[in-house]
Amino acid sequence: MATIKEVAERARVSVATVSRVVNNSGYVSTDLRERVEEAMLTLQYKPSALARSLRRQETHTIGVLVPALNQPFFGTLIFAMEKTLFAGDYRTLICSSEEDPLKEATYVDILLRQRVDGVILVPTGQSTEGVSRLLQAEVPVVLIDRDFPHLAISRVLSDNYGGAYAGMQHLLALGHRRIALIGGPSYSQVTKARTDGAEQAFRDFGAARDPSLIMIGTLPEFELGYQAALSLMKRSEPPTAIFALTDVVAVGVLHAAAQLNLNLPDDLSVMGFDDIPLATYVIPALTTVSQPIYGMGQTAVEILMRRLHNQHQPLETIQLDTRLVVRKSTAPPRHKA
Question: Looking at the structure, do residues 219 and 287 belong to the same domain, yes or no?
Fold first, then answer.
């Protein structure tokens, strides 16, 4: 572990200056303070006195880090969190990792330098480095939507497994057997939970399964749904139903179906997951598995606030229910699958 002297040497300041920064006592110029804090982060110098001083020096700012700002699910999630935080007299720093763990790590550095009081994080899922650095710095963190099950951390999730199970059951009950799954990315814990739930429903039904109908990719969600559906529906034995693991993927599927002049839901049933606002307005209106997106954001803020007001608050794991919403995009297959 680095010493205070090593921090002073790296920052090119005196030990006394480092001590003033650590204890938040006495005047230190902005430039020197930033140099000292950068040296402490680089050397992973984490004295308990620093943690105490940071807790005393509240900024009333919360970092919110998500994988994408251009996806409706995350837009709704951010809206819920920002509105709830603002009502509690907190301001929000919103960051987007764009599914890039290196960009995620860069934003973690920025949030630490900004001395945010806490962070709500939807991780890329590819690395725990960013989350671990926040925890090492004793910054209160709440994971939302995506999980690292082995980390001791508070989290807010929805029942992705159960929701996908119910969605697949719905398609099977309608009479579909050739049911495609489209989703991604494969490293996402959410994708895995939804895929596992849907596949378990299929196994429990006792029907034969064609593994080639499972298409997991890394393309942007709309493009993934569009390209996968074009490929699937041009097969000699196309699926009679497609279960898209997000609503945006499902919209891509609907676009491909329109281009192929398919009559929905007679020629093809389509189901999504999330229940974003657009799901009600596409044609046909999308059958989907609804998760309480606004409630997830609100709950994450409430957990973080409890932790900020009581450092001894126990870690919390909250899983919110999902529910099947049947609209106009699913129906029994025209021909027996």
Answer: yes
Q: Is-contact 111 65, C-beta < 8 A? A: yes
- What CA–CA distance (Å, rounded) separates 295 from 236? 43
State how many domains the chain has.
3
DSSP codes joined into one string, 63-80: EEEES-SSSHHHHHHHHH
Domain-embedded: residue 335: no
Token pair for 298: 């609100």
Q: Based on the fold, state whether residues 222 and 170 are members of the same structural domain.
A: yes
Domain extent at residue 3:
1-39
Rounded to 5°, the CA angle 314-162-82 comes to 50
Q: Position 225: which residue type? A: G
Distance separating alpha carbons of residues 21 and 18, to the nearest angstrom:
5
Q: What is the pLDDT of residues 23-47, one digit of tens each?
A: 766 678 888 888 988 988 888 886 6
Q: Is residue 237 part of a domain?
A: yes
Residue 100 lies inside a defined structural domain of this protein? yes
0.70 surpassed by pTM:
yes
pLDDT per position as a tens digit, 254-305: 999 999 999 999 999 999 999 999 999 999 999 999 999 999 999 999 999 9
Is the peptide bond between 284 and the residue preceding it cis, with omega within 30 degrees of 0?
Answer: yes
Query: With contact defined as beta carbons under 8 Å apart, do 11 and 18 qualify?
Result: yes
pLDDT of residue 50: 46
How large is the average pLDDT for residues 70-81?
Answer: 94
In the structure encoding, which two tokens stand for residue 13, read together? 């300041």
Same domain membership, residue 75 and residue 64:
yes
Q: What is the mean pLDDT of residues 310-333?
A: 94
Q: Is residue 247 part of a domain?
A: yes
Beta bridge partners of 118: 62
Q: How far apart are the first and last CA of the chain?
A: 64
If DSSP codes are grouped into helix, strand and coil, which group holds residue 248? helix
Provide the sign of the torsion angle of the four alpha carbons 152, 78, 71, 280, taken in this order.
Answer: positive
Structure-block tokens of residue 271: 């189901």
**317-320 vs 154-158, strand pairing mode:** parallel
Helix 30-43 and helix 101-113, axial crossing angle in degrees, nearest 10: 130
